[in-house]
Design goal:
About 75% of the residues lie in helices and about 0% in strands. The protein is mainly alpha-helical and about 70 residues long. InterPro entries: TAF1, TAF1_HAT_dom.
Amino acid sequence: VCTYESMLAGQHRLKRLGISRLTNTVGLAFAMNQIPDEAITLAAASHIERELQITSWNLSSNFIACIAQA
């Protein structure tokens, strides 16, 4: 239950920040390489990348186990 609630809280936090499309770290790295080399754009993209990397499902393998049981 705690893992699932942590995942929901992480999703809610990302939505509050305006991040609505979630991806895995492989897709994230690909997207970061496609961004134009402009300072403001790269800074914003780096912030989004950090926010996605600290979500519970990227920090814990328990997320996958939790979703598999739900």
